[in-house]
Design a protein that fits this description.
The chain is α/β, with parallel strands linked by helices and 168 residues long. Helix content is 33%, strand content 24%. The chain has helices at 14-25, 39-42, 62-71, 98-108, 147-165; strands at residues 4-9, 30-33, 47-55, 59-60, 80-86, 113-115, 118-119, 131-132, 135-136, 139-141. Strands 1, 2, 3, 4, 5, 6 and 10 form a seven-stranded mixed beta sheet that branches. The protein has a three-stranded antiparallel beta sheet with strand order 7-9-8, with no helix packed on it.
């Protein structure tokens, strides 16, 4: 398995909770909170799984926003990235998982390889910066309205990531 870091930003605990579930699927990965991440150490990783919630009107979680500014100083051209994002499709259908979309927009300028896109068929939203070409840029999760679907979605997505990476 490539050297893997799961990096998350969490204000109230939902993204941490989801990151821990993703970590269970990738037990050899290092689980790192964005607020404690050391940029110098991250250059040694090949694969990043990054998770952020959406705050306010489609913003990235605060700790993650600060982290990303530093993370973008790294050369990501030979790195692989998968994203997951948390949002509320009922209360905020017009900014559902926008935090993940904004994160994607920031990272794509550094030319990493992205894996883990996810279909939008099973979601009820009107707009999302994370939805492009009929797919989400990563795994969208709604812990407010569909927590019962999270485990199944993570299981399928994790297997998709492993297949894309050629690992068991």
């Amino acid at each position: 398995m490539p050297k893997t870091a799961i990096i998350f930003g969490s204000s109230v605990g939902n993204t941490r909770f989801v990151a821990e579930k993703v970590h269970a699927a990738f037990p050899d990965a290092d689980l790192i909170a964005a607020e404690t991440a050391k940029i110098d150490q991250l250059k040694n990783y090949d694969f990043f799984i990054m998770g952020t919630s959406t705050w306010g009107v489609g913003q990235i979680q605060d700790d993650f926003e600060t982290f990303v500014e530093k993370f973008l100083t790294l050369d990501l051209s030979n790195k692989t990235i998968a994203l997951f994002g948390l949002g509320d499709q009922q209360t905020y259908p017009d900014t559902f998982c926008d935090g993940m979309g904004k994160l994607y927009e920031l990272l794509e300028e550094k030319n990493p390889a992205f894996i883990g896109q996810w279909p939008g068929d099973d979601y009820d939203f009107s707009e999302s910066k994370a939805f492009r070409d009929e797919m989400f840029v990563g795994l969208p999760l709604d812990e407010d309205n569909e927590p019962d679907l999270t485990d199944g979605r993570i299981a399928i997505w994790s297997e998709d990531l492993k297949d894309a990476l050629g690992i068991q």
